[in-house]
Amino acid sequence: MTRTDPGALERYLRSVAADLRGPGLVLEDDPDAITRFLDLPAVAIQQRMLMPARFDRGADAVPPFVPNEASCLEWVLAAEWLAWGDPGMTLASPGPSLSTAVVRALADEEQRDWFFTRIARWPTWTFFALTEPGKGSAATELEAALTPVPDRSGWLLSGEKMYIGNGAHAQLGVVFCRRAPGPWGIEAVLVDTTDPGFRAEPLPMLGLRGARISRLRFDDVYVSPERVLGRDRPPSRRGLRGALGAMLWFRPSVAAFALGATRAACDYVLAERPALAGADRALVDDMSDRRSRLRALLHRAAVEIDAGAPNIHRVSAVKTRAADLAEEATRLAAWLLGPASLIEHPWLDKLYRDVRAFEFMEGTGNIHRRTVFQGLLRDDFFVADPDDLGCDGAA
Amino acid sequence: MVGLEAYPSRLDALHATVAPGFYVASVRGHVLASVGTLGSAGPESLLRLGLACTAAPPSAVRDRAAFADGLLAMQLDVLRRTLTGAMARLDGRVSEGTSLLGRPQVQADLADVAMVIQETAAEPAGTWRGRWACHLRMVGAGRRLLRLFGGHAMLLDSPAGDLYLTEVAGNLYLQEQADDQD
């Protein structure tokens, strides 16, 4: 389900994503250097595709046929090609990020205005804060707490979040926290990083350094009632629902990142060794074949999400397999380019480390394997007739 | 947890044991050793972890078999310590009311890694092809272990740091080449 010609969109994405390679290496050593590359069209794509049209000022270099408020399939196409260019640059780019799905799903009109009007001021970075130290991304177990403010309306937010992309550099974000025990006691709140009590520090990362992954601390950060997303909905239809919905919408794009990186690793090998043949070539071809199969499954999963009939088991499967494949592809590339390839090919070394993050983004492989198993138990994993599910973007 | 300085200093000691007073060069003419001995040369990704990489000086030793066996022993040791660290970490983490170490899936992952360690340690590789195969097996086992650490495994000061260094060292010194057969 794409509103624009998927072939044209992909050609455009590929052409601008190629510009991310050099800057990606710069970010590797200086993650804050993203500010030097804000005029690259590929850096502005997230802003265009994740923003509602009425908030998009349209003052960037992205052509009009790149859609606002992308469908899941459209965003998957973009994520794949942007990651083919450079995953770190993609995740370092300004824009609504994962938070957009929560705001789109839960926010009332006033909250949408507050969030997207601020993001429309280019460049603005955002974060999506769910994961906690010691608890991971288990949404039902989070401990960051919302407590009532004595003698006035509103809440105080306390706790820590871990592994939050762009956390230390964002101007605003969505934080998941607990107002009361149980799954319906979870809330999603909007936080301005200039609010007193907010602190953040970038973490020393092995890979994906451009994403400026951070630890956040909230020491009695005041949250007004207007910043509680879905404040007028019943508890069962806001916090946890928003977290799960946002993660489900974005999970396919993590798979797309992984498939883009896989394609990049294979392309890199063939560019460096154009005469590659025999058993070595067969290994690369096998990698490309597996990527193509997962891409087809990914597009089907995205179409199901866009149709309002997501299958969480199949989304988990493709995310897990794609993350595994990206690791395999980069290991294979390092092998096929021979001894010292990780020293003599800095971009490959970077990709080799970057792709490992896909295992941990949006839930680890073991969590998703359990989800796949649940799908088997419910007889809800395999597609009855794969031909029933058309998709515009498979290529 | 495997310390940040553990691998670089042990690598220096291996150079000193195999080629006292010299460095051992890789097949492509590089030397990998600690920042403390080589200075801040080479990719930032290594320097951040305390390792440097330079072109080998003319005096560098090129008989690499003993050095390669030493690297594999170090990799085995890092893997084993990471396994121990993983068990301690998972035992201390609780999800849905139970220790993560109590989950059959986690137990199976840990047991598989332990079996790879045991198999690799059973006898020396002996050939370049065998050394490379041992290295790849241990890389796979290390990656499998790191998945049990969650996002922690992306931090420089996690076990992932030393495991990454073992992968780079293997890429430099252990990979089989056509002109490098027994």
What would the keywords be for this entry?
heterodimer; A: 395 residues; alpha+beta; Butyryl-CoA Dehydrogenase, subunit A, domain 2; Butyryl-CoA Dehydrogenase, subunit A, domain 3; 3 domains; globular; B: 182 residues; mainly alpha; 2 domains; 55% helix; disordered N terminus
Please characterize this protein's 3D structure.
The complex is a heterodimer of chains A (395) and B (182). Chain A has 395 residues and is of the alpha+beta class. Chain A contains 13 helices and seven strands. Chain A has three domains: 6-104; 126-237, Butyryl-CoA Dehydrogenase, subunit A, domain 2 (Beta Barrel), CATH 2.40.110; 244-388, Up-down Bundle (Butyryl-CoA Dehydrogenase, subunit A, domain 3), CATH 1.20.140. Chain A has helices spanning 6-17, 21-29, 41-50, 72-85, 87-92, 99-106, 109-119, 239-272, 278-306, 312-336, 341-344, 346-354, 365-377, and strands spanning 126-129, 145-148, 155-164, 172-178, 186-192, 198-202, 214-223. In chain A, the strands form two sheets. A four-stranded antiparallel β-sheet of chain A has the order 2-3-7-6, with no helix packed on it. In chain A, strands 1-4-5 form a three-stranded mixed β-sheet. In chain A, a hairpin with a 6-residue loop joins strand 2 and strand 3 (155-164). In chain A, helix 1 packs parallel to helix 4 and helix 6 (99-106) runs antiparallel to helix 8. The longest helix of chain A has 34 residues, at 239-272. Chain A is globular and about 75 Å long. The mean pLDDT of chain A is 93. Chain B is mainly alpha-helical and 182 residues long. Chain B has two domains: 6-55, no CATH class; 65-180, Up-down Bundle (Butyryl-CoA Dehydrogenase, subunit A, domain 3). In chain B, strands 1-2 form a two-stranded antiparallel ribbon. A two-stranded antiparallel sheet of chain B has the order 3-4. The longest helix of chain B has 27 residues, at 65-91. The N and C termini of chain B lie far apart (37 Å). At the A-B interface, helix 10, helix 11, helix 12 and helix 13 of A face helix 5, helix 6 and helix 7 of B.
